[in-house]
TrEMBL record:
It is found in: Cytoplasm. It comes from Candidatus Nanopelagicus limnae. The keyword RNA-binding does not apply. Cell wall formation. This is D-alanine--D-alanine ligase. The gene is ddl. The lineage of its organism: Bacteria, Bacillati, Actinomycetota, Actinomycetes, Candidatus Nanopelagicales.
């Protein structure tokens, strides 16, 4: 049997470059090599595509995050596919484990559509609108999901509406892993927080802080059906104001509690809201949907991640594992779903 060649593509030009490398390391170490032949491709921070050795180690070592080296064997992309050293890489399926802009936002999905390579995850439009919170929130609201009040600004010159009260969250509209996000407790801190967010994006969301529990839910599209996970709750150490980059990736104090400590009947409502969001955004393959369960008993959707963190210990695989699907099985199911799906141009 000829095994399909799966391109695990990681790195990229976004601020989540390093986390993408760590996710790729997990997939590379766990992919079922009896079924698939992995090909590791790294995109450098400057945008070069490199053909990486199969034994590349992208683990976090002593707190140091891995990156794709800036030099190596370059890859060229043509209408005939991906080539390196004058030879076709003969990629059958792409697994773009890229987080944030240039990977999770529809750009690389559009490239795959143009060169007719099947790929894991959501298509161009679902990826783009899910990445941009300023577009995702109206879609969620139109699907009768509750969102936190907020405004979109593009500079530090703006008027804060009277319905927004401190504390507020200031975050880039199209960034992930909480990069560039600040919790603002008073007006004097607001301008500096907006400037920080503007370093990551030209569009910034100023949003009402929600007091309550941070809740996450995983959705998997595989075997012709949608599987929605149990609901998990993020518990943070008191030293963190919110679930920021440090808490997510560099500190081991975060706990994922599954099932979440919720009143009777609320988990089912959150699971239904996750499915509603997945369908409303037009997602495919996988997504992690993040919610707040407020102290007033409201279910408020925060965001949808179409290519969530994917290490063996990341929230998405851990939630799916509670449904009886191991990390290796999850990788297999996602690749097989990509194999069976038509590219959007032919649908």
């Amino acid at each position: 049997m000829i095994k399909p060649r799966v391109a695990i593509i990681c790195g990229g030009k976004s601020s989540e470059h390093e986390i993408s490398c760590v996710s790729a390391n997990g997939i590379l170490n766990s992919i079922d090599r009896n079924l698939f032949e992995p090909v590791l491709i790294g995109i450098t921070k400057s945008g070069k595509w490199l053909f990486l050795p199969d034994d590349t180690n992208f683990a976090i070592i002593n707190g140091a995050l891995p990156t794709v080296p800036e030099s190596g064997v370059e890859i060229s992309i043509t209408s005939q596919g991906l080539f390196s050293g004058g030879k076709a890489l003969s990629i059958d399926i792409a697994f773009p484990i890229l987080h944030g802009p240039y990977g999770e936002d529809g750009t690389i999905q559009g490239l795959f559509e143009m060169i007719a390579v099947s790929y894991v995850g959501s298509g161009v439009l679902a990826s783009a609108v899910s990445m941009d919170k300023s577009y995702a929130k109206p879609i969620f609201a139109a699907a009768s999901l509750k969102v936190a009040p907020g405004i979109v600004v593009t500079s530090k010159d703006f008027e804060l509406p009277s319905n927004l009260t401190f504390p507020l969250f200031v975050k880039p509209a199209r960034s992930g892993s909480s990069r560039g996000t600040t919790k603002v407790k008073q007006k004097s801190e607001l301008a500096a927080a907006v400037n920080i967010a503007l370093e990551f994006d030209t569009k910034v969301i100023i949003e009402q802080s929600v007091v309550g529990k941070e809740i996450e839910c995983a959705v998997l599209q595989a075997d012709g059906k949608l599987t929605v996970s149990q609901v998990g709750q993020i518990l943070l150490s008191d030293k963190f104001e919110f679930y920021d980059f440090q808490a997510k990736y560099l500190d081991n104090s975060m706990q994922l509690v599954v099932p979440a400590d919720l009143p009777a009947g609320i988990e089912a409502k959150i699971q239904q809201a996750a499915l509603t969001a997945f369908k409303a955004a037009g997602c495919e393959g996988l997504a992690r949907i993040d919610f707040f369960y407020s102290d007033q008993g409201e279910i408020i959707i925060n965001e949808i991640n179409t290519m969530p963190g994917f290490t063996p210990t990341s929230v998405y695989p851990k939630l799916i594992e509670k449904s009886g699907i191991t990390y290796q099985q999850l990788i297999t199911k996602l690749i097989q779903t990509a194999q069976n799906r038509s590219l959007s141009i032919t649908r």
